[in-house]
Amino acid sequence: MRLRLPARLNPGHLAPAHQTRRRDSLLTAAAGLGVAGLLWLAQEFAGGYVVHMLCVAAIYATLAASYNLINGVTGQFSLEPNAFVACGAYVTALLTLSPLEKEASFILEPLIWPLSVISIPLLPALVIAGLVTAFMAFLMGFPVFRVRGDYLAIVTLGFGEVIRVVANNAQSITNGPLGLKGITQLTNLWWAWGLLAVTLFVLVRLVHSSYGLAMMAIREDETAAEAMGINAFWHKMLAFTLSAFFEGVAGGLLAHLITTISPTLFTFFLTFNLLIMIVVGGLGSTTGAVLGAMLFTFGGEWLRVVEEPMTILGLHIPGIPGMRMVIFSLILVTFMIFARQGLLGRNEFSWRWLAAVFKPRRRP
Amino acid sequence: MSRPLLQVRGLTVRFGGLVAVDRLDLELHAGRLAGLIGPNGAGKTTVFNLLTGRVRPSAGQVLLDGRTIAGNGARLRPDRINKLGLARTFQNIRLFNQLSVLDNVLVGFHGRLRAGFVSAVLRLPGYCREEERNRARAEDLLRLVELDHLSQEKAENLAYGQQRLLEIARALATDPRLLLLDEPAAGMNPQESAALARLVSRLRDQMGLTILLIEHDMRFVMNLCEELTVLDHGAVIARGAPHQVQNHPQVIEAYLGVDQAAGEAGHA
Questions:
Q1: Chain B within 8 Å of A354 (Cβ-Cβ)?
Q2: CA atoms within 13 A on the CB side of B123
Q3: SS3 of B37, please?
Q4: Which of the residues A209, A222, A234 would you substitute to probe the B interface, choosing the one with the greatest number of B C-beta atoms within 10 Å?
């Protein structure tokens, strides 16, 4: 006896991918234009606060989607993105700050030459930051991917801390605990959402290619993948450096959004938050990572309501600062009990799926 | 006579004090269908792990088409050995459970993909052609093992026997010259195992594969294989054609134990 699946969950009802490729690209382009239109409306009519939150959301979504490539798709549980974001943020800021601002900031020890005289536009600075971060990941990959599983998590966690400590102590490059101030606020909706679009384009294409398949095979069974001719080390390295590249660029945009960076910004908590986003969204799903990041960013703001003084059934409750973190934790616990696979599991959004949902069900 | 496709010379591996494989010699000519049998714990799967680079030998060497792939200073990774033309299936099925049946087979083609990852991301014509060709070949392989109607199903949802067939299809996707099958008929009913025997002969006769298989189902092995090597405690105790091996006193002893073998001989 075969289980009868509801029509819209049965993959047999989806049209084959190659038949709808043209329609799907058109729909994607249309959706992109739609989002761009909404962003324009937000920029014109919404307040600075909303625009700021939309930028943060896009940057977090970029970070979560890239982090998901190595943790979710390739299945290598690593805990270092805070290091990559820090690297990207510092490199970009050091490249774009004007020599005068640098001289004013570095009061304890002067910034080393040639960084002290360089000042370049944002775009090349971001690309360089991405490449530097990817190179750092590349070097890190050699020792790190000698181990798997829990050991990998611990080794990468260590690397994340090392970078933070370096940022704290390399006074003549990072300005130590004082951090970098006076970074021009260059990040706007177009930069943040543009980066998200580019990241998603690359990641989705990669995941749906033979390379993505090889990465998932490594996640499912590394021994079998190797026996089938897949070089597990280089595929992990590819996922790792690529996610580091995008995390570095996103870090650069983050620095140019909040205008002040210091080592305290890039602690393990950043990694931890990203981990929550990808787990809640559904580990291994790029759509889930983006959704998780959006929920996390806006949910945190919406939950501020619970910290306001309020009156319930005539009972007056004064505002309790920190209450939203309690509620947030409760939501997370509930999530992990009732939806361990996250919102989407490993499923991805696709136009074919959407079409199948809206198509009238055929009665057998 | 031409050079054997597979040459194993004095292959030995020790795990601590245990000698799991003891000075194994084995030769397999191209186009042969051979079996490796022996009681549980004889070291058969360890031999496969040695041939495919999962376990490194303590001594001896393995040559594939004259090239050293294990031992004697060669330290080839399993994926390199696979690319040289040696593919295997696993005794304890190791499919990519969350991937579809078709994707499981497609993974087998990835090792030989020529297009780089930039080409794959940008969907350049070179990559698209390769992808399309691999997809068509994967579908052919699924038809061969009669799983084409399940191509979109998750691998973990297949029945046990079907999973074994999918492992064979995935191994074939890597375009091997020598195929190692580790207990392919385990858990199959008589009909399934008869169909499998037909498939294995077809692979040899029509696709020109050289096949070495481990199997416990004696009827399966005796009907199918042309030559057998019997292992016990890591060492070869007999080799030859099935009927020769079948009546070899040491083989009977290894399978049934000394007393019982003697008792049965007495009854005969």
A1: no
A2: 10
A3: strand
A4: A209
Q: What is the mean pLDDT of each run of 10 residues along chain A (364 residues)?
A: 41 57 86 91 87 94 96 94 96 91 81 81 96 96 90 92 91 87 89 95 94 96 95 96 97 95 92 93 91 90 81 78 84 84 82 76 54
- For chain B, the residue count is 268
For an interface test with A, give the residue of B121, B133, B154, B164 to mutate (most A CBs within 10 A). Answer: B121
Rounded CA-CA distance A237/A333 in Å is 33
In a domain, A14, yes or no: no
Check pLDDT > 80 for residue B6: yes
Give ipTM to 2 decimals: 0.91
Backbone angles phi, psi at B165, to 5 degrees: -65, -40
Q: Which of A259, A250, A232 is nearest to A133 (CA)?
A: A250
What pTM was computed for the model? Answer: 0.89
The DSSP code sequence of A29-73 is HHHHHHHHHHHHHHHHHS-HHHHHHHHHHHHHHHHHHHHHIIIII
How many angstroms separate the most distant Cα atoms in chain A?
Answer: 78
- Among residues B140, B148, B132, B151, the alpha carbon closest in space to that of B207 is found at B140
d(CA A82, CA A311): 40
A16 found inside a domain: no
Pair type for strands B178-182 and B210-214? parallel
- Give yes or no for a cis peptide into B57 (omega within 30° of 0): no
Give me the number of domains chain A comprises: 1
- For chain B, which residues lie within 8 Å of any Cβ of chain A, measuring from their own Cβ? 52, 54, 77-79, 82-83, 87-88, 90, 94-99, 103, 106-113, 115, 117, 120-123, 127, 130-131, 134, 152, 170-171, 173-174
At A307, list the tokens. Answer: 């910290």
> Which residues contact residue A39 at a Cβ distance below 8 angstroms, ignoring those fewer than 6 apart?
A54, A189, A190, A193
Domain membership flag for residue A11: no
Token code pair at residue A55? 């930028």
Structural domain containing residue A52 = 46-358
- Between CA A25 and CA A29 the distance in angstroms is 6
Q: Does residue A264 fall inside a structural domain? A: yes
Rounded to an integer, what distance in angstroms lies between the CA atom of residue A350 and that of residue A353? 5
